[in-house]
Amino acid sequence: MTDFFSPEQIPAAVHEIMKAQKIWDIHTHLYPPTFGTPTANSTGKTDPSGLMLWGIDELVNYHYLVAEVFRVVPSSVMPYEKFWRLGKAQQADHIWKNLFVQRAPLGEACRGVLATLQKLGLDPNEKTLDPYRKFFSAQDPSRYIDKVMELANVSTITMTNNVFDDNERARWLADPRIGTDPRFRAVLRFDDLIRDFSSAAKKLARWGYKTTPTPTKKTINEVRRFLNDWLDRQKAIYAAVSLPPDFRYPAAGGKNAKAGAVILEKAVLPVLAERRLVFAMMIGSIRLVNPELRDGGDMVGISDVASVTTLCREFPKNKFLITMLSRENQHELAVAARKFDNLTPFGCWWFLNIPTQIEQMTRLRLELLGATFIPQHSDARVLDQLIYKWSHSRKIISEALADMYLRVAQTGRKVARAEIAADVQRLFHQNFADFLAR
What we know:
By secondary structure, this protein is of the alpha/beta class. Helices cover 51% and strands 10% of the residues.
């Protein structure tokens, strides 16, 4: 007998199904212990330049909170250079005191830290970070990953593996087994090829590829060889770039922008089409409008959706996974996805990953696209953030989805448990898996 829900039952049913659904987190900046961890832990092994970030000092030093603390204690009182000279624990103490102890922590990034501590069974009312440091120092990093994934109900973590980051690149070259942790999947990231090809070409030449800043036929072939080498090395499930809001295709701008467009057209997209790999484009970030804030100094800008539609039309054999950083782009991007089946919008990226924007974007996409998009990714940079980011997103997306089913029920169409479960599974796992495999 089919399990149908009355309108009164729908919200609770959607929440229950959503809570049980395991999530494939399709975009993070997280790493397994094989990439090294700078955080003191029960194993006694630390790596100062390690890429696996976790624990209270990393949580509190998240670049969102670094930017926020300078709103409270301005640089005229705490100069930037003085803050950056502090040790990581001292920086965290400064942030905790000024954002969590001496005032109510109202911002989403602050609330996220508190929600994470609470779900880990810790008291979020501590006046110092010492009790939390004691807890985290007793953890084994690998086992702690399992704990966090269980609390977040995440089945798979998708990394961001930047081949132009010297630290990460060296680790891949030093240990061919580095990316074999089954909990994590690799993604080849190569922003410099598109954003600054002249610099990228010089690096490739040093790495043994016969490239020049001018994208000649030989250089294009060498870039293709480079991409294939690293896609094989990482066993990457897709490729990705982050682009500024002034990205245009066809290219507009100077010689370097045009060179990047040639590399995109003649090297990147053909290689990915041949390998049937998805190309993720995250568009709208302006780097370091305030370089004093380092990672916290980036900005948002309105991007050009027409460039995306041109790519989708001119390269029908490629699959484009697109997210944009500006709220103003979301409606046009969703409409574009109605026109091209090789375009899938995903997530609420970076500054949009806050409750008000997640709710608006999810409702907009559901109304225009049904359950054929990917509603969220965590974009987590610190492992523990998976806990609060997915807890908060599940609740918001659940409410939006329940409202859609209520509207369906108001037409007299019955809503079945199996339909809800199938849609939730599509949104948080199957749409991505199908797009990768298509």
